[in-house]
Amino acid sequence: MTAVTDTPAQQVRLTAGAQAALITVIVGAVCLALEGVAPWLVKWPAAWELPATQWVGAFLDWFLNGIKPAMRLFSDLMTYPMNAANYVLGNTPWPILISIVTALGWYLGGLPMAALGFIGLSFVLASGYWAESMNTLALVAVSVPVALIMGGAIGILANEVPRVKSFVQAVLDIMQTVPTFAYLTPLLLLFGFGPVVGLIASAIYAAPPMARNVMLGLERVESEIKEAAIMSGGTRLQQLFQVEIPAATTQIMVGVNQCLMAALSMVIIAAVIGGFNDIGWEVLLTMRKAQFGESLMAGLVIVVFAVVIDRMSGTLATERKRYDSRVVWAMLGFAVLFTAAFWAWLPNPSELTVLDPMAGAIDSGLTAFTQANGPWLDALKNNSLFYVLLPLRIGLDQAVLPFTWGFQWTPSMSWGLFAVGAAIALLMAWRGHLTGGLVVLILIGMLETGIGNLPWPFVLTGAAALGWVAGGWRLAALSVGLLCTILVSGLWERALLSLYLSGAAVFFCAVLGGLIGLASAVWSPVWTVVRPICDMLQTIPLFVFLIPVLMVFQIGEFSAFLAICAYAIVPMIRYTRHGLVNTPEEMMEAAISSGATEWQIMRDVRAPYAAPTILLGLNQTILYAFAMLVIAALIGTTGLGQSIYLALGQADVGLGISAGAAMAILALIADRMVQGFAEERRKALGL
Amino acid sequence: MKKLSVSVLAILVASSAHAADMGAVDEPIKLAINEWTGQHVTTHVAGEMLKAAGYNVEYVTAGMMNQFQALADGDIDATLEIWSSNVSDEYAKKIDEGTVVEIGDLGLDAKEGIAYPAHVAELCPGLPAWEALKDCAQVFATAETLPGGRLVDYPADWGTPGADRMTGLELPFKAVPAGSEGALIAELRASTERKSPLLITFWQPHWAMSAYDVQFVELPAGEEACFNDPSWGPNPNAVNDCDFSPSRIFKAGWSGMEEKWPAAYEILTNYQLAVEDQQPMMGAIDVDGGAVEEVVAAWMAENEGKWRPVVDAATK
Fold first, then answer.
1. 3-state DSSP call for residue A541?
2. Using the beta-carbon criterion (under 8 Å), do B61 and A635 form an inter-chain contact?
């Protein structure tokens, strides 16, 4: 809905945006008018649905059983490194492990890194989850190399064979957007039970960032370097491995860093399957008992690992100076001596309970908070539901009831609303904003019907129109084609519910995140406070947040909405701030010298320049919101996320994969459209 | 009565059986550890019995829903607390394939029902009689369920028994699926702490029953006829107008187990655990913070008479 292209009213030829909006309005109006005589226009009849989920299931059963022996062999092979990593990490005395990490920190980043490693691991030790953490680390230690090799190979392949590049991009998108829960059942069938499944799942999720960065890095190798390699007469392999990859190292290291983070964020999913006693399993157990303090502690262990790994591997991507390696040897030597000297007195790390009182305090703090603030929190929830979320989902015509708004919605009110919408549209068209006016009319129509009840022809036309404006007829065709697969597979209603919930969350995140980003950009103390919160929101296992949200707001859509927002708002904040802060100096100087005020600079220079970056942030927010839908289903939403859990419970491979695919389709379409608009803005700015 | 006959049967089987072959004693028997404490207790007691018989036992964590593939492949050898109320469809598939076999009831006497924390009785006088809910629905109403009351139901993947009751009994309640067990507990906890109204689908044995003083609504008895014959029960036009049918809790094993460890198979088949034994152990772990190994070890030492005969019958 961002394509607000201005059209002078006197001009007869309509712009692309106005044409698209006009067609959408007409289709919407026709659907509304015929609602009574042709109900199939609004709700896709069940008789037209194909048993697609069953077909998918049958095909996958056949396919999976075919490749099962090979995969089982792979699984058996992977247990060796897995057991080895487990054995080494599990049996190394903790002082030695702490000193190794501290020494590594020193080697990579000097004193601050060493301190980070030491404090971080000391926290893990004090939490009493040492043994479980080591199991988690063992999983990461094996899955990351697998992901790196996989991602690296994909990236190099795409670089060497340019024809497959767009296909590879699509595959990477699918790997990142289909929720892991959707393919857990087939993975279990293929690889058998145990940690190997978790390992594969995290490798699948962690490989794409590596592949993307390898592709980007190789692409950016300067042509002079490549030519020099060709002239020196090396084979293609020699050129690649001895010249191009080393030249792209910095970018590839960014990939390694992202890959590590992604792998770590998946440990909790691996725990859902079970197979070994890791920190994710602890989070699940405490979550099941709704013990917020304990699950926060277990979750923080993962955050600590994430921060330590992130900062340390982050130094790999930047040029760094060398630190004295004698210090490394001194630290290791001291640790060995310490361990040998105090061997008999070393406490068993599983019995440490230093942080237990803290967990208890957090838990009772939550209780006190809910008790003290119950009434106004309830009021907040009810008002948000009555006046915002319910109308969005089922439309004003059904949400406005004597119980909620105090009066009953009548058809004449609908007509009144449409009349107001038409008046606004006419006024805007007269003032020269035809497209804007039409979009307002569409939005008012959507509010009256509710996203959950939108007629399917309207949704298809709307998607086609947006796709056409954002990226031409190819994107329009792609959007419609993909949406049709959801329509005939019988998952349409659930998809609309998912669309509504994530759409509402994205809208809220875009507004609030944008404002926070703006505040952080203009006033740096805000950013000092916001940044660590953003870091934590992104790395802590999301399950942990569900408990306090549930305690305060109970099961239901509002809780799910908040949980999604808590996660999806982060990229919006980050990218908005980043875009606004990084305006090129010369543009700023020109603006200042022309005597613009601070506010004028923000509005006329910084904001337009930052627009592509902010749109990229919006794109990430959309993807994050869809990713969170599955987790939100744990607090009782009814969209595609719930279908995925149903499929998991019934071991219904077809339903799981289809629902996962539907989710990925929605995310992909949204993603391509936003990228299309961002591209347009970038061209307009001459970037 | 059913429970009694089962245990009598178990004793008969145990006493009449000849000592079975021990089988592959060197290889560990892998028992599944699922997500809830009661199951940990059940499994550790069984594991200790196998150890007492001379076996090696390994405990393997496994998601309740995902464990059956592992059981079929022999990656796990037995899982000892399956609730008929929320067993996944995959279990039935594996039973049909013959890769997983059921190895008898556990003997835990479970109850499911519509429940509420004790303080709710003050908000809706007339509870625990179910008829009271007819007039109290307003008390339980929330934004999502207006004008009806709100019933927190099981997560959707466990089925919708609560919603079925509300329809059957024509109670003005809308069932909201919880999404996860953690969500159910959070609801109970928030309701108890804030003294707010709550109607929830719940079950026992569960540690939260005592921790939040949860009471069951008294519904007409869940007889077989109620689920087939609409005319049965208070609502002449609907089925499900009664309490839950009693759920069965049973054990299952890998199909190759009987051959590989005959004596262990016999022990697990005859193994029984009563609510009176399990519930205090759960309390000792979840409420008093004990470790499952220690709590089970203490129980084993005190109650040797309850488990030793089963082990002896299979091995001597």
1. coil
2. no
Do residue A652 and residue A509 come from a single domain? yes
At A662, which CATH number? 1.10.3720.10
Check if B180 contacts A (Cβ < 8 Å). Answer: yes
| Residue A515 identity | L
Same domain, A493 and A556: yes
pLDDT digits (tens, 9 = 90+) for B172-199: 998 888 888 888 888 898 888 888 899 9
Question: Under an 8 A CB cutoff, do B155 and A550 touch?
Answer: no
Same domain, A488 and A543: yes
Q: Report H helices in A128-194.
A: 130-160, 165-177, 184-191
Q: Would you tell me which residues 254-313 of chain B have a C-beta closer than 8 angstroms to some C-beta of chain A?
A: 286
A157 and A304 in contact (C-beta within 8 Å)?
no
Contact (CB<8Å) A193/B69: yes
**pLDDT tens digits, A567-579:** 889 889 988 888 8
CA distance A491 to A485: 9
CB contact under 8 A, A649 and B89: yes
The pLDDT score that the predictor gives to residue A270 is: 72
Whether residue B67 contacts residue B20, with contact meaning beta carbons closer than 8 Å, is answered with no
| Min Cα–Cα distance to chain A from B126, Å | 25
The shortest C-alpha distance from B19 to chain A (Å) reads 33
Find the closest chain B residue to A371 by CA distance. B194
Q: Where are the alpha helices (DSSP H) in A16-51?
A: 16-34
Mean pLDDT of chain A: 83
Looking at A271, A302, A323, which one is the last position of a domain? A323
Percentage of residues of chain A with pLDDT beyond 70:
96
Check residues A557 and B254 and name the one with the higher pLDDT.
Answer: B254
Which domains, and CATH codes, for chain B?
2-109+249-315 (3.40.190.10), 111-228 (3.40.190.100)
Query: Of all helices (H) and strands (E), which one includes residue B176?
Result: strand B173-177
Q: How far apart are CA A682 and CA A680, in angstroms?
A: 5
**Within an 8 Å CB–CB cutoff, is residue B186 touching chain A?**
yes
B143 and A382 in contact by Cβ < 8 A? yes
Give the residue-averaged pLDDT of B236-256: 87
Question: Strand order in B173-177's β-sheet?
Answer: B173-177, B149-153, B199-204, B111-117, B214-216
Q: How many domains does chain A have?
A: 2
Domain co-membership, A152 together with A252: yes
B14: pLDDT strictly greater than 80: no
Are residues A502 and A543 both part of a single domain?
A: yes
Contacting B residues, span 217-256, partner chain A, CB-CB under 8 Å: none
Find, among A359, A392, A347, A349, the residue nearest to A283 by Cα. A359
Residues A535, A501 share a domain: yes
- Determine the pLDDT at residue B1: 40
Find, among B43, B17, B13, the residue nearest to B106 by Cα: B43
Smallest CA–CA distance, residue B15 to chain A, in Å, is 36
- Does residue A83 share a domain with residue A20? no
B129/chain A closest Cα distance in angstroms: 26
Considering only residues 265 to 294 of chain A, which have any Cβ-Cβ distance to chain B shorter than 8 Å?
272-277, 281, 284-285, 287-290
Rounded CA gap, A378 and A387, in Å? 14
d(CA A495, CA A256): 34
Q: What is the pLDDT, as a whole number, of residue B77?
A: 93
For the full predicted model, state whether its pTM sits above 0.95: no
Query: Among A323, A346, A365, which residue terminates a domain?
Result: A323
Domain limits for position A38: 16-54+455-685
Residue-averaged pLDDT of chain B: 84
Instruction: Provide the chain B residues 58-87 that lie in CB contact (below 8 A) with chain A.
Output: 60-63, 65-70, 73, 75-76, 86
